[in-house]
Amino acid sequence: MRRPWHHLFHPANAVDYREAVGLTVDHLVGHVADTAGRPLTGITPRESAERVAAIDLDRPLGEEGEALAELSRLWLDDAIWFHEPTAAAHLNCPVVIPALMAEVLISGVNSSLDTFDQSAGATFIERHLVDWTAARIGYGAGADGIFTTGGTQSNLQALLLARGQQVAPVDRLRIFASADGHFSVQKAARTLGLGDEAVVPVAVDVSRRMDPAALGAALADSVAGGGVPMAVVATAGTTDFGAIDPLPEVAALARAYGAWFHVDAAYGGGLLVSPRRRDWLEGIELSDSVAVDFHKTWFQPVSCSALLVRDGATLGHVTWHADYLNPKDSAHPNQVDKSLQTTRRFEALKLWMTLRVMGADAVGEHLDTVIDLADAVAAELTAMPDIDVAAAPQLSTIVFRYCPPGRDEAALARINAAIRAELFDEGRALVAATRVDGRSYLKLTLLNPVATLADILAVVEMVREAGERLADAPVAPRPRGERVAVVR
Ligand SMILES: *Cc1c(COP(=O)(O)O)cnc(C)c1O
């Protein structure tokens, strides 16, 4: 329908608004009903780029239905659907409905969380959630935090606060993180002007957890060489293995060296609400800061994440007063004083609606369910003679590969890459790839509480069946799905 008011949200167009949103929801639900066991179609970057490039943005369609139909061709027909159990590659979750209700309100009202005079009650909803999360961590009075765009931003801000606490010259500052830690720690070091060399990778043990003896040795070495330990980053749930570093031991070493202790719980933070596994995070309360991605193990839409700090005063390192926004003598509580961002979406409302409708236990039970599933899948995989499991799962990932006898590393790398590409190209399953100690592996990341053991074993069967076929295929460049130079 063509609407005179379609570009504005105004009382006069409430009827238009409801119709347009209803149309959009119907369109989406139609697509969801259509996916039926296919998480993707395997569209190539080339096809996708060509379709999008053909759109002339200077010629509007002027009508919602046509725009939605066009969008189906450009995106939705070939989208990646995370509610499908066979989408098992990334830490991107299926989302809960209360959070989607919140999304309607977040964008419709368009509060901005930088200042109280742009958000009113939203400021206190965010603060209440921060206090609640801090209490779950086990922080005492004086704790604080802020919602962020994701673990990457939380890690950056945590390290910025850590740097703010130091007086030593920047070129001597060092950050210690597990060799399996997230690359956003390196990016943060670079952003902060510390340089790539500032991050000292610490060896992991056989279960892929940071080895405290190795951390102790790395700290001692660094100090002996003139380094100043600025921060120790423990990971609670590494991206590949879900490994949770030994938090109490790491905390003790960080404290002994006067370093800021940050816990990157972007992945494992969901354990804060797990009815059965909260104790896996023991020691997290000893940290100076924690990153939690609600958009991973809390089943929230991207993006929804937070940085929590033990001592709220440390957030002062990001405070800047501007006369036009948050003057020093402002009588209002302004969240911008604690954030790297200025204009900021009310992402916290998604978590709020989820907790108010479903409750924390329901969220944690979902996470427990996917951890149980990962254990069950790993037990099956371990019993398969042609499958090599890299390590027992710790959260909800399983790193494994198809491994027929008598093949060298290069052959196994080729076969497993070909398996993954074929499943993607044919739109049958989305499986991840990673490298472990220089060897190529596949990875299942399970975040769908509705997925069953049978669903995931079906993916494993696809892997084995493709592997058997591809193991002896001639090495040839693949015709579809190859990297295309022009794709941006
Ligand atoms: C995903 C992840 C991050 C990055 O978080 P984003 O929300 O993607 O920015 C950081 N650390 C770990 C351990 C992660 O799994």
How confident overall, as mean pLDDT?
A: 94
Uncertain residue ranges: 481-488
Sheet bearing the most strands, described?
Answer: 7 strands, mixed
The CATH class label of the largest domain is Alpha Beta
Bound small-molecule species: pyridoxal-5'-phosphate
CATH topology of the largest domain: Aspartate Aminotransferase, domain 2
Q: SSE order in H/E notation?
A: HHHEHHEHEHEHEHEEHEHHEEHEEH
Shape: globular
Q: What CATH architecture of the largest domain would you give?
A: 3-Layer(aba) Sandwich
What do these coordinates show?
The protein has helices at 14-35, 45-53, 64-74, 97-109, 121-137, 151-164, 184-191, 212-224, 247-256, 294-297, 348-357, 360-382, 409-425, 453-470, and strands at 87-88, 144-148, 173-178, 199-202, 228-235, 260-265, 289-293, 305-309, 387-389, 397-402, 430-436, 439-445. It has 488 residues and is of the alpha/beta class. The chain has two domains: 13-95 and 359-488, Aspartate Aminotransferase, domain 1 (Alpha-Beta Complex), CATH 3.90.1150; 112-358, Aspartate Aminotransferase, domain 2, CATH 3.40.640. The strands form two sheets. It has a seven-stranded mixed sheet, with helices on both faces. Strands 1-11-12-10-9 form a five-stranded mixed sheet. Strand 3, helix 7 (184-191) and strand 4 form a beta-alpha-beta unit. Mean pLDDT is 94; it is low at 481-488. The site of pyridoxal-5'-phosphate has 15 residues, from helix 6.
